[in-house]
Write a structure and sequence with these properties.
There is one protein chain. This protein is α+β, with helices and mostly antiparallel strands. Among the domains are: 2-132, Beta-Lactamase (2-Layer Sandwich), CATH 3.30.450.20; 292-439, Histidine kinase-like ATPase, C-terminal domain (Heat Shock Protein 90). 53% of the residues lie in helices and 19% in strands. The chain has a 5-stranded antiparallel β-sheet, with helices on both faces. A 5-stranded mixed β-sheet has the order 7-9-10-12-11. The chain has a two-stranded antiparallel ribbon with strand order 6-8. A hairpin with a 2-residue loop joins strand 3 and strand 4. Helix 8 runs antiparallel to helix 10 (407-417). The longest helix is centred in the middle third of the chain and has 50 residues, at 134-183. It is rod-shaped.
């Protein structure tokens, strides 16, 4: 619409302006030729106009002060002797120049008039009319050219729109299909969208989200399966022992006491699993106590006092060393949980006569806790998964030791939530070492 209207309107305005200038200039020449005549008569006007008449004009009229035509260039149907009350002539007899131009039916129709003055009196008027089809043909050709260009541009835009819309809808269709597949539970489905546009970037982000969903769903299913299995084992033992007590007639008190003791141990194990699951749930949901400055050394000393008796009963030598101010951001309870789980794990899986060494130091901007033992170590294939939930290197031995398979997961999640890291490695001389690194804080002295 803009291509077919604005250039034509501008072209019309240019032609109108050109017509006004040329036609009024021609009328001025004729007015100058008549301005010395008074009064105006048919004879003296005809003589004057024979010299001043402009070629190319379709019609020229000259009237006296009353509007009666004294001169008319039209050969047939001459208006000489008649009154001419054209709007332009009326304006000229009032002492004003007048001009009008229209473009219709393939022609420019221009009209101009000016008063003939003698001693400051209007004695007549000159009226000129031009019928121009040449410039109208040029404007019509311009319009046809613009129409052809518009048609070509429209076709190109339509084709380009079809191509772009097809490509866009194809990509959106792939993305919608992938969304539906993932919504229905097919977390392995990916959106195969190529390119670098916004839709391709959305597809890439969707695939990344699907990867996370698949990883989370796999971990959730494994977690539910492992948790169900871990809870099922003590429950089955409790049910078996209780059924044995109920179904055995004349059971002796010692056997009953032994069975009840076993039920208590299984119930305690079930309680530990439940507590660990609740703790992991709190960590996953981000429900953490507000952090504060924690000096790790007093926490370490408390944990070592608790674990010393356990180590002595098992015949394991438990020692620790600490140096420097070791202040981190966290809570005392979660720090104690990290230390206790690592030390308990090391003592639990050490043989009689073994040793466990715990060290606490500050190195630069980090506080480092290391728990090392001289046991059998960890198989290299198991090291990358050692912090996974319910993962055990030796399942039979772990259950016999009373482990839930959640302690190291709790340690890893707790430390990472406070901006730290934890890693496991085998010692060159045998055994394993777990190393925890926290961002160090400077203790603020009370005022």
């Amino acid at each position: 619409m803009l291509l077919n209207t604005y250039p034509l309107l501008v072209s019309e305005d240019l032609v109108f302006h050109s017509k006004a200038t040329n036609l009024q200039s021609s009328v001025s020449v004729m007015v100058n030729a008549l301005s010395g005549l008074s009064p105006l008569t048919e004879q003296n006007v005809a003589d004057a106009m024979a010299l001043a008449e402009e070629a190319g004009l379709s019609r020229i009229l000259v009237t006296n002060s009353t509007g009666r035509v004294l001169y008319d260039t039209r050969e047939t149907g001459s208006a000489v002797g008649y009154l001419a009350l054209y709007t332009e002539i009326v304006r000229a007899l009032q002492g004003y120049d007048a001009f009008s131009c229209t473009y219709q039916r393939g022609a420019f129709r221009s009209r101009a008039s000016s008063p003939v003055m003698y001693q400051s009196q209007v004695i007549g008027a000159v009226y000129a009319y031009e019928y121009d089809t040449e410039q109208a043909a040029l404007l019509s050709g311009l319009q046809e050219t613009l129409l052809r260009l518009s048609a070509m541009a429209g076709v190109l835009v339509l084709l380009l729109s079809l191509v772009l819309s097809k490509a866009l809808t194809h990509k959106i269709g792939l993305l919608l299909t992938a969304i539906r597949q993932v919504r229905e539970g097919s977390y392995s489905h990916r959106a195969a969208i190529r390119g670098r546009d916004e839709i391709a970037q959305i597809g890439f982000e969707f695939n990344s989200l699907a990867d996370r969903l698949q990883t989370t769903e796999t971990a959730r299913r494994r977690f539910v399966s492992d948790a169900s299995h871990e809870l099922k084992t003590p429950l089955a033992a409790i049910r078996l022992l209780s059924d044995s007590i109920l179904q055995t007639d004349n059971i002796d008190p010692e056997t009953t006491k032994e069975f009840v003791s076993d039920i208590g141990r299984e119930a305690e194990r079930l309680s530990r699993i439940t507590e660990d699951l609740l703790r992991l749930t709190r960590l996953d949901s981000g429900v953490l106590d507000p952090p504060a400055e924690v000096d790790i050394l007093p926490v370490l000393e408390q944990a070592m006092r608790m674990m010393t008796l356990v180590a002595q009963e098992k015949g394991v030598d438990l020692t620790y060393s600490a140096g420097g101010a070791c202040v981190v951001l966290g809570t005392r309870d979660e720090t104690h949980q990290v230390i206790y789980n690592l030390v308990d794990n090391a003592v639990k899986y050490s043989a009689a006569g073994g040793s466990v060494q715990v060290s606490l130091n500050r190195e630069g901007e980090q506080v480092i806790l290391a728990v090392a033992d001289n046991g059998a170590g960890i198989p290299e294939a198991d090291l990358p998964r050692i912090f996974e939930r319910f993962y055990r290197v030796d399942k039979a031995r772990s259950r016999a030791a009373g482990g839930t398979g959640l302690g190291l997961s709790i340690v890893s999640d707790t430390v990472k939530r406070r901006g730290g890291t934890v890693e496991a490695a085998n010692r060159p001389g045998g055994g394993a070492v777990f190393t925890v690194r926290w961002p160090a804080l400077e203790r603020r002295e009370d005022a």
